[in-house]
Amino acid sequence: MADPADTPKPQGDNRPALALHVPEPRFRPGDKADFSDIDIGEAGAMPRPDESAAPADMKELAYGLVRVLGEDDRAHGPWDPKLDPDTLRTMLGHMAMVRAFDERMFRGQRQGKTSFYMKCTGEEATSVAASMALASDDMVFPSYRQQGILIARGYSLLEMINQIYSNKGDKLKGRQLPIMYSSREHSFFSISGNLATQTPQAVGWAMASAIKGDSRIAATWVGEGSTAEGDFHSACTFATVYNAPVILNVINNQWAISSFSGFAGAERTTFAARALGYGLAGLRVDGNDALACYAAQSWAANRARANHGPTLIEYFTYRAEGHSTSDDPSGYRSAQEREEWPLGDPVMRLKNHLIAIGEWDEEQQAEMDRSCAEKVKATTKEAEKNGILGHGLHHPFHTMFEDVFEELPWHLGEQARQATRERIAKFGKERPFG
Amino acid sequence: MSADTHSAACAEAPAERRLNMIEAINDALDIMLERDPDVIVMGEDVGYFGGVFRCTAGLQEKHGKTRVFDTPISECGIIGVAVGMGAYGLRPVPEIQFADYIYPGLDQLISEAARLRYRSATEYIAPMTVRSPFGGGIFGGQTHSQSPESIFTHVSGLKTVIPSTPYDAKGLLIAAIEDNDPVIFFEPKRIYNGPFSGYYDKPVEPWKKHPQSVVPKDYYRIELGEARHVTNGEELTVLTYGTMCHVAEAVCREKGVDAEILDLRTLVPLDIEAIEASVRKTGRCLIVHEATRTSGFGAELSALVTERCFYHLEAPVERVTGFDTPYPHSLEWAYFPGPVRIGEAIDAILKD
Q: Domain range for residue A238?
C-alpha cells in the first residue's frame, strides 16, 4: 500500500479537505434503541386547514405530525374524522384480517407453498384506513405492501392466495411474483416490481379523469426509500403542473430493505416537506393512528375532488418485520426498535380506542382474531385445491406466450410450438398439459 | 400495402394532394383526434408551438388544450403518465422530441408499458404510440442523431414502426394509434422534408416529386407487420427501412443493379414472409440500416435470413450500417452508411 505522504497532493491543497457524509442509522444489531428524541407532538395539536388551502399557507403540516388518537385512547382535535362505531369496527376488522392473512402467508412461504411473501405488519392503517376514506371506484396505484387496500375493498382472499401460490386458479396466470396483485374490478392497478413507476402512472390516470370531466380521483402509495427514484419527481412535477386530482401517499416505514430512511434524505428534512418545493399540499401523519390516516386521506380526497389540487401525505410509521421473506432484519438493525417505536401498534391503538369509548371489549377482540385466523386457514385449504407453487397445478403452459401482444405474432407462435415439442420430448404425449 | 395498391388508392383520390412527411404525420394525428375522443397528443413543445419539427402544428388550436398539450421536460414522466392514461382508457400519443432523449423513459416503456398486458393478464393495457424523430444527417451531433430501434425491438411487448414516405407515415401512424399494444413510432427526420439519395452535397429534393407524397385526405390504415416493395428485382434483395430505403434505391439505380428493395416498415412484428420470398427468389441479401452495427437490427435480420434461406443463398449476407461510434458532429457524413459503403457491399455480394 502506498504511503499517503507519497501520493501527489491535488491542486489547491491549502483549502480544507472535503469530507463525504455516508448516512448511518443510529442503532445496529445489539444496540439499545432509544427514540425519545423523536418529536411526535400531541394528539389533536395540529390545525386542520380548509381543503382549499394554498400549500404555502399550511407549511407546518409538512413538518409536524397529524395525530388523532392520544395516550388516553381517545380521539382529539380537528382531525378527528368522527367515524361511527360500526365503521371503526369494520376498520379494525380489516386490519385484523390483514394481520392474520400476513401471518398465515408468511408461514406458507416457510412451508414451501410459495416462493415469496411480504408482510405489512405495523403499517396496516396506512392502507386499510386510508383506502376507506376513498370512494370504492377511485383508482389506486399501490406499491407492494398495500394488501390492506384489497382487503378493505372486499377482494376475495381466495384470489389473493391463488395469486400467491401461482396456481391454476391464479387469474394472473402465474406470471407475477407473489403479492403483485391486480384487480380492475376493485380499481386496483397491477403492481410492478420496479419501484415508484406507479407514481407518474397514477398522475396520468388522474389527468385522464380530469380530461374526461370524470369525478373519480387516483391515489398512489410508495415507500420513502423509492421517493429517491426519478419517477417520483416526475409524478410530483406532473401532478402540480396539471393540478391533477391525485394523492401521493409516501409510507415512511424507516427502512428500505437494509437502508434506513437517511438514504432517501430523511436526515435533513421530512418526506412531506418534499411537497412544498413542488407547490403540492403536504401532510405528515402518524401512520400508526388509523383515525389520522383516514382523516388525512379524506382531506386530500376532498381537495382533489373539488379541483383544489394534489396532496403528498407522509405516513410516519415503522416496518415491524423484514422487508420480505427473503430478508432478515436482525442482520442490520436493532431488534429493540420495534418495541421502542414511539407510535405503538396500529391495530392495538384502534382496538384500545374502541374499548375506551365503550364499543368493544377484549373478548370481542379475541373472537375477531380467532375468526380471522379461521377464515384465512379455511381459504388457504380451498386455494391449495388449485395447487401450490411448483406442484404442477398451474396454468396451461401455452399461456406463457399469450398476452405479450393482443395477437400472437409469428415469432411467438414459432416459439410456442418449440415449447410444445420440448414438453412432449420430456413428458410424452399422454401427459396432460394442464 | 404494395406500391400498386398505393397507386390505386391515389387514383381514387378526388384531387391529388402532395404532402411532405411532417404534413402527413400532422394529417394522421388530426384525423385520429377527430375520430376518437380518447386520443390525446402530448409532449415537449407540441401544444401552442406545434412541435420543434412542426408535426403537431395547429392541432391544439383545432382540438383544444386538454387534447393536445405541452408537457414538462421529463421523458420518464411523459411515458409514465401515458401508461396511467392508457389504464384509464385513453389512447395517448406522446411525442419524445428526439429519439436520443427517450432513455429516461425506458423503464416506463420496457418494464411498464410493454409488460402491462401480460402481467395483468389483460386487465390493463397500454395502448400508446410514442412518436419520436430519429436518425442523423441533419448535423444533430451525437444527441440528435441516434437510431436506437434495436433497443426496442429487443423488448417483448413493444412494436416498432418506421415509415419512409409521407403516404406510409400517415397510414402506419393511424394503424399504430389504433393498435392496442404500445408502439414505438420512429420518424426518420432526415426525410421529413424530402427523400434523400445519400448525396449530402446535392440539393435537397422535395417530396412533391416523389410518387409516395400523394396522400389521400381521408382516413386509411397501413397494417403493421407488412413490408413494402420499393422496387421489384431479381438480382439482389435489400432489407432496409427509413431513410436508407431512399439511399439504397439511389445506389441500386446508379449501379444498374436489378435489386428488390424491401422497406420493412415494421420491425416488430416483422414481415418474415416477404423477406423469405424475396431472398429465396434472388439468392442474395444485403441489409442496410443507419444504426450502429453491433447488436443492431441487421444482426437479427442476418440471422433470420441465414436460418431460413441458407440453401437459397449464393453469397454471404452482408450488412451495411453506421459505425460503432457515437454519431460525430463534424464527421457526420463519414459515419453515415452512404453510397460508397453500400456500393462496396453490393459489389461483394454480386461478385460471384
A: 55-384
A-chain CB neighbours of B121 within 8 Å are 171-173, 175, 182, 403
CB B107 to CB A197 under 8 A? yes
User: Count of CB atoms within 10 A of residue A381's CB?
Assistant: 10
Mean pLDDT of chain A: 95
State the pLDDT confidence band at A6, using cuts at 50, 70 and 90.
low
Question: How close is the nearest chain B Cα to the Cα of A201, in Å?
Answer: 4
- Domain presence at residue B73: yes
Same domain, A216 and A344: yes
A36-74: buried (b, 16+ CB within 10 Å) or exposed (e) per residue? eeeeeeebbebebbebebebeebeebbebbbbbbbeebe
Do B187 and B229 lie in one domain? The reply is no
- The DSSP call for residue B204 is P
Q: How confident is the model at residue B6 (pLDDT cuts 50, 70, 90)?
A: low
Mean pLDDT of all residues in A258-273: 98
Q: Do B181 and A175 touch (CB under 8 A)?
A: no
Amino acid at the residue A211:
I
Residues A279 and A401 in one domain: no
Tens digit of pLDDT for each residue in A324-345?
999 999 999 999 999 999 999 9
Last residue of a domain, one of B148, B175, B191: B191
Same domain? For B89 and B235 the reply is no
- Asked, for residue B167, whether it belongs to a domain, the answer is yes
Whole-Å CA distances, B145 to A141, A150, B20, B188: 36, 47, 20, 10
Query: Where among B175, B191, B207 does a domain terminate?
Result: B191
How does residue A257 score in pLDDT terms, banded at 50, 70 and 90? very high
Question: ipTM above 0.90?
Answer: yes
Closest partner CB to A190 (pick from B108, B124, B180): B124
Helix orientation angle between A124-132 and A85-110, rounded to the nearest 10 degrees: 140
Same domain for B93 and B168, yes or no, is yes
A311 and A403 share one domain: no
Same domain, B112 and B238: no
Does the structure show a pLDDT above 60 at B41? yes
The whole-angstrom separation of Cα A225 and Cα A246 is 20
A 10 A CB-CB count for A11 gives 7
Mean pLDDT of A169-188: 97
Whether B159 and B270 share a structural domain: no
pLDDT of residue A434: 44
Compute CA distances A10 → A20, A223, A429, B184, whole Å: 17, 41, 73, 48
Tell me the pTM.
0.96
Residue B74, all three cell numbers: 421529463
**C-alpha–C-alpha distance, residues B253 and A118, integer Å:** 65
For residue B1, pLDDT over 50 is answered with no
Active-site residue list of B: 144
A5: confidence class by pLDDT, cuts 50, 70, 90: low
Residues B186 and B230 in one domain: no
Decide if A389 contacts A114 (C-beta within 8 A): yes
Chain B positions touching A236 (Cβ under 8 A) are none
Task: For residues B171 and B241, state if they share a domain.
Answer: no
Does A420 lie in the same domain as A308?
A: no
Co-location of A408 and A264 in the same domain: no
What the block records as the C-alpha cell of A294 is 383516514
With CB atoms and an 8 Å threshold, state whether A205 touches B159.
Answer: no
Q: How many structural domains is chain B composed of?
A: 2
**Residue B79: Cβ-neighbour burial (10 angstroms; 0-12, 13-18, 19+):** buried
Give the pLDDT confidence score for residue A390 in this predicted structure: 87
Number of helices (H) and strands (E), helices first, in chain A?
Answer: 12, 7
Residue B70 domain boundaries: 9-191
Domain containing residue B263: CATH number: 3.40.50.920
| Residue percentage of chain B with pLDDT more than 90 | 94
CA distances (Å), origin B172, targets A203, A432, B214: 29, 42, 15
